[in-house]
Specification:
The complex is a heterotrimer of chains A (about 450), B (about 150) and C (about 200).
Chain A: H1 2-17, H2 25-48, H3 69-100, H4 103-107, H5 110-114, H6 116-121, H7 131-160, E1 164-165, H8 168-202, H9 210-225, H10 239-268, H11 277-299, H12 302-308, H13 313-341, H14 348-374, H15 388-418, H16 428-438
Chain B: H1 4-32, H2 39-60, H3 75-87, H4 94-99, H5 101-125, H6 130-143, E1 147-148
Helix pairs in contact in B: 1-2, 1-5, 2-5, 2-6, 3-5, 5-6
Chain C: H1 3-27, H2 36-43, H3 45-65, H4 74-77, E1 82-89, E2 92-94, E3 98-100, E4 104-111, E5 116-121, E6 127-133, E7 139-144, E8 149-154, E9 167-173
The chains are: A mainly alpha (about 450), B mainly alpha (about 150), C alpha+beta (about 200).
């Protein structure tokens, strides 16, 4: 699910940035193809080779299993391929914002923040909001990619040459740095879809402010430093990093809530928003982001982490992010595109049914994870201790209801697609004008 | 702008000279020092050499065209050269290389060339990407951790 | 109300408050429309205040949680305690099956093969303490058992296909305990405490 949503985010952000500057299409296809090839490798290693080291593959587990050696190799090569594709994308994004907005200084909106008057007097404009996710994903992603290259090559060398020994604690830090940054960046990348989609739905413009720019600067740093919360229960980690980890995990919440969420609420307040399915999905994805964030902050507090580390609380919070946030952003975007081109509209009953089923089921599904976590049920168990099984049964019912809602949404999407009337780009400026002519 | 040009050129030449000196120092190391350092120290020396070669690459890239479009073909070497450079730091071969100076020299040459290629390619792809690549190359190599199992020489 | 229920309640209340803000803002689109400029002008006061408020709140919480951090200083590790080596391996824990009541136990947790977790569940099934079991490293975990009964140790870090069945029972009894069996520490043991060993050596 992480990779599926990551690929959605890569594509979405690429699409948005290409509106500002020409991007090489073959390069993007190459990045995509390498990621897909890597995914095939991981699937082959897992299903055919029975590799059971998991996607976190903490060293030395990949080399201590009851699966054949070749499946470990195929798994590692697959990961390296995914990483190569990811790094190509990051370089392309970073290069694009550097080219489009006048180097690093322009892309960071440095002069806009520090020399505001001269900046405005010169008639310059700060980059559009979607440039910041691209910059942060490109920059932080490149660092995570370099980390993954280091880890991947080390593990591949260890696979080829068992004489090599790797420090497991070093590998653990690298693994979590890469995995956390990669997973975390997905939601930040998808924020770009809100920046463009929400103005379309609300018929207002998304306002760039100094607070927003500084918020993205701090996100750029905190995304890299908050992975330390994955090592709270490693008491050999230098103590200062544990304190720093909690502090930076807390401070991550400030730019998200103060910037993205507030600047998303403001265009909605007393606006003429048409609550189509696309607008509903996009807007409620923000709720998932905030609620998942509350769960994450509780888990990122060391005294609570003592009781929640590696329990179901962890999947609880990231499923809230991914299902209730990322997936809804993607669906919202897709539906906005479909609705803007379709001759038909979704009926109120249909919207109500889809919302009730998918969100209602999702709440039941996610709450069971949180309950399990609070009662100490460990994650990644094939057979869970009580109260895991009963919660899992309730969660299954919730998931079934949620899937029914999404299936209905899928059918509705197909219906909208079949009655496509016009082909036009979704671009807030033009469409806002058009909307004001209509209204 | 005009006043800046000679200064820019001087900085470039300085960077190039510094890069050449550091790289040559790293390349000739196998012939000058025959003592086995610890592997972390050896990694640090490699990372220094990688940074030197990167500086040289930045100086060489000074005359590339301005940042107006992307030259996509350069992306692959920029991403793959660091992988090759890391693979050349195969941890269990140090003991053997210490006894074979020419092989050790070739190993260092490979590491330096990979770094040079990575930084140059990143800079050639889109101007400005060379610097982060240089820093990553340096950090990546200094953080390399693998070592041969105890009792393996 | 036990700790788990309090935690869940806190989370649910916070989540409900956050969600209702969104619903209220969403509902506001039923009110008469306002020009964006007007909304923007009044609205911009809020992020500034919120920015300061939430930052101060989070910093306060951070300072408030510090006394509850579990990391043992080197000095604390030297306090009188019954030292108990724990060796985790695929898929079992090698450790004693009986512990005394109200005595400080210092678990010296390490692993023979891959990364494992060491999570202690009390007789009520609550997770009361945990640390990671890592090859080449020792994590110190100090626990004092105040309630007699049947405890379970579970692995909390995925360690392979037998991860879910990796557990160990022990009892805590009030009676004076029998002398504890002495065990040899693992041979690959690089002993370090919370702030002594450097992971990047």
């Amino acid at each position: 699910m992480i990779v599926a949503l990551a690929v959605c985010a890569l594509g979405g952000l690429w699409f948005l940035i290409r509106r500002h500057i020409e991007l090489s299409r073959p390069l993007a296809v190459l990045a995509w193809a390498l990621i897909m090839l890597g995914v095939v490798g991981v699937i082959v290693a897992t299903l055919v080779g029975r590799f059971g080291g998991l996607y976190t593959f903490l060293y030395p587990l990949p080399f201590h299993g009851n699966w054949p050696g070749w499946s470990t190799g195929v798994f590692l090569i697959g990961l390296v391929l995914v990483n190569v594709g990811w790094m190509i994308w990051c370089l392309q994004m970073l290069g694009a914002v550097l080219r489009a907005f006048g180097g690093l200084r322009g892309a960071l909106a440095w002069d806009y923040v520090w020399h505001r008057q001269a900046f405005q007097a010169a008639g310059r404009q700060p980059p559009p909001p979607e440039a910041f996710p691209a910059l942060v994903a490109g920059f932080d992603g490149l660092i995570a990619g370099m980390d993954a290259t280091l880890l991947g090559v080390s593990l591949l060398v260890r696979w080829l040459d068992p004489r090599v020994v790797i420090n497991p604690f070093w590998a653990k830090n690298l693994t979590y740095f890469w995995a956390h940054t990669f997973a975390n960046l997905i939601i930040y990348m998808l924020a770009a879809l809100i920046y463009v989609g929400l103005p379309y739905a609300t018929r207002r413009s998304y306002h760039i402010s100094v607070v927003l720019v500084i918020g993205w600067w701090s996100s750029m740093i905190f995304i890299l430093t908050n992975y330390f919360h994955h090592l709270y229960m490693d008491f050999v980690q230098p103590g200062i990093l544990q304190y720093f980890g909690e502090l930076s995990s807390y401070l991550t919440a400030v730019p998200v809530t103060a910037v993205t969420v507030f600047s998303a609420l403001m265009p909605v307040w007393q606006s003429r928003t048409r609550w189509t399915l696309g607008a509903i999905f996009l807007y409620s994805g923000l709720i998932g982001w905030v609620v998942g964030g509350i769960g994450a902050e509780i888990d990122a507090s060391v005294p609570f982490n003592l009781h929640l580390h590696n329990t179901l609380w962890v999947p609880a919070h990231f499923h809230t992010y991914l299902l209730g946030g990322c997936l809804l952003f993607v669906l919202g975007w897709v539906f906005l595109l479909l609705e803007s081109r379709s001759a038909r509209e979704t009926s109120g009953i249909m919207r109500g049914t889809i919302v009730a089923l998918s969100f209602g089921g999702m709440i039941v599904f996610l709450l069971d994870f949180y309950f399990g976590g609070a009662y100490g049920v460990p994650r990644r168990y094939a057979t869970e201790p009580a109260p895991g099984p009963i919660l899992a049964q309730i969660a299954t019912v919730g998931a079934a209801i949620m899937l029914a809602g999404f299936a209905l949404a899928f059918a509705e999407g197909l219906r909208l697609r079949w009655s496509r009337a016009i082909d036009r780009p979704l671009w807030p400026g033009e469409l806002r004008e058009e909307a004001s002519h209509e209204g | 702008m005009k006043d800046n040009l000679p200064r820019k050129r001087m900085v470039n030449v300085g960077m190039g000279i510094l890069g050449v000196v550091i790289s040559l120092d790293g390349l000739t190391m196998p012939f000058r020092s025959h003592e086995m350092t610890t592997i972390p120290v050896h990694h640090l020396l490699h990372s220094g050499m990688a940074a030197g070669a990167g500086l040289l690459a930045m100086a060489l890239a000074a005359n590339l065209p301005r940042r107006d479009r992307e030259r996509g073909g350069w992306v692959l070497p920029a991403v793959l050269a660091p992988v090759a450079g890391l693979a050349l730091m195969w941890p269990s071969e140090y003991a053997y290389l210490m006894g074979h100076h020419w092989l050790h020299f070739l190993d260092h040459l490979g590491i330096a060339l990979c770094s040079l290629l990575a930084v140059f390619a990143a800079q050639a792809y889109v101007r400005g990407l060379g610097w982060p690549t240089l820093v990553y190359q340096h950090l990546e190599r200094s953080q390399q951790s693998g070592h041969p199992a105890a009792g393996d020489g | 109300m036990d700790a788990a229920e309090k935690l869940l309640l806190t989370f649910i209340i916070l989540a409900a408050v956050a969600a209702s803000v969104f619903v209220a803002v969403g509902w506001s689109t039923r009110l008469p429309e306002q020009e964006q400029a007007a909304v923007q002008h009044r609205g911009y006061v809020i992020p500034g205040r919120w920015f300061t408020g939430i930052t101060l709140f989070l910093l306060a919480v951070f300072v408030g949680t510090i006394p509850f951090f579990p990391y043992l200083a080197a000095a604390a590790a030297l306090q009188p305690a019954e030292k108990v080596p724990v060796i985790a391996q695929q898929f079992a824990f090698i450790m004693p099956g009986q512990f005394p009541l109200n005595r400080r136990i210092l678990f010296e947790v390490t692993s023979r093969d891959v990364n494992h977790g060491f999570g202690i569940y009390n007789p009520e099934g609550q997770l009361i303490a945990q640390t990671q079991a890592m090859p080449d490293y020792v994590n110190y975990l100090a626990v004092t058992f105040h309630h007699p009964g049947h405890y379970i140790v579970r692995c909390l870090e995925y360690c392979g296909v037998g991860h879910a069945v990796m557990e160990k029972d022990f009892t805590v009894e009030g009676a004076p305990p029998a002398p504890m069996p002495m065990m040899q520490p693992p041979s690959t043991n690089n002993v370090g405490s919370s702030n002594e060993s450097n992971p990047f050596e």
